[in-house]
Amino acid sequence: MPLSRKLQEIVDRISDNRETLLQSISGLSDGQLNYKSEGDPWSICDIVHHLALTDEANAKLMSNLLKRARAENLGPDPSPDSSELHSADEVFARVAEPKFQAPQFVAPQSHLPVEDSLARLKASRANAVEAIDQLASFDLSQLTHPHPFAGDLNAYQWMLMAGGHEQRHTAQIKRMKVRPDFPN
After folding, report:
1. pTM of the predicted model as reported, rounded to 2 decimal places
2. What is the pLDDT of residue 98?
3. How many angstroms separate the Cα of 110 from the Cα of each of 36, 53, 107, 114?
4. Is there a contact between 155 and 96 (Cβ–Cβ < 8 Å)?
5. In terms of residue numbers, what domain contains 66?
6. Is 27 contained in some domain?
């Protein structure tokens, strides 16, 4: 079944965010990927590892939400042609400025080569999109789960937060790359 307009917009948005992330690290050397400036606990390689861990957790969440939707016999989306792209704007505004400490389960604990993290990102996105495809027949505004920093979010907002999280870290990577001590 094709995705509703609502879900296709979200998948397109998070895909665009992923592409921007990939472009931001394309062609970087090992020295650049592993660069840490004073006071930064993570290198670009660590950030990509963190994003892989987070994306895996989000894919698992989408799978769990699908199980819940089926178990609760959730009804269909009453407005599949509307848009949810701005449904998380208030949440994004609230979490835009503060710096957060990543929960332990999504903090990189060991050095993982960037290629491994990228492979994990690709696999987890495929798993998430597969779950989203199956979630398409349900009203996801009725399916909520607490976010560690943003509170209860519905499934649409969770998907948008996943893309927004990558966007936030892509901006961090771009700031790292323009520091005077960033390796050439």
Report:
1. 0.91
2. 63
3. 15, 12, 9, 12
4. no
5. 5-16+35-177
6. no
